[in-house]
Amino acid sequence: MQSEKLIQTLLEQTRHIINQVERLKSYDTNHLMWREHEFSWNMLECLEHLNLYGNFYLAQIESKIKNSSSKNELEFRSGLLGNYFAKSMLPTEKLNKIKTFKSKNPLNANLDKTVIDKFIDQQIKLLDLLNQSRNVSLNKVKIETSISSLIKLKLGDTFQFYLNHIIRHLKQIDNIEATMKRSNLK
């Protein structure tokens, strides 16, 4: 895939994500904190989970881009592991559950609407990093994963994995809303 086409696609996805989350600002806190049962996440917890991953990945991506001497390339070739991780994050029809690390599990955290602002700020930072990534190799710059510092993905794969993870949890938020509406009708 052409590097520029990938970056353009990721920029569009990020802008769409920002617009999608902006609407949550109009909801009251009770709506945002509704949960189906005691072990399910509410909307704010979904976003806080993403914020925790944003804290991990965005700082690292920024540092790697800033300190890279690699030059941009016309073509990006997804790695086997990176492609697998990115695709595994995409939501399926019936959202397949993936166990999260304890350090990234916000269940019952004391959250408020500032979680939404932080998430949007991270997405604005992501837009900036995507634009900066035009000056480095999406193939040669490597990013450590949250799974292990020994597992590193190409920058292009990391961006795709990171955005697919966000898309996955925004689908979860949509599902929470749909379940809430159904339960209110009963």
Briefly summarize what is shown:
With 186 residues, the protein is mainly alpha-helical. 58% of the residues lie in helices and 3% in strands.
Please tell me about this protein's structure.
The chain is mainly alpha-helical and 186 residues long. The protein is built from six helices and two strands, in the order αααααββα. It has helices spanning 3-22, 29-32, 43-66, 80-89, 114-132, 155-185, and strands at 142-144, 152-154. Strands 1-2 form a two-stranded antiparallel sheet. β1 (142-144) and β2 (152-154) form a beta hairpin. α1 packs antiparallel against α5 (114-132) and α3 (43-66) packs antiparallel against α6. The longest helix is centred in the last third of the chain and has 31 residues, at 155-185. The radius of gyration is 17 Å and the shape is elongated. The termini are far apart. The mean pLDDT is 91.
Class per helix and strand makeup: mainly alpha
How are the strands ordered across the major sheet? Answer: 1-2
Question: What's the overall average pLDDT, rounded?
Answer: 91
Dominant shape: elongated
Continuous helix count: 6
Task: Give the radius of gyration.
Answer: 17 Å
Q: Which secondary structure elements does this structure contain, and how are they paired or packed?
A:
Elements: H1 3-22, H2 29-32, H3 43-66, H4 80-89, H5 114-132, E1 142-144, E2 152-154, H6 155-185
Antiparallel strand pairs: 1-2
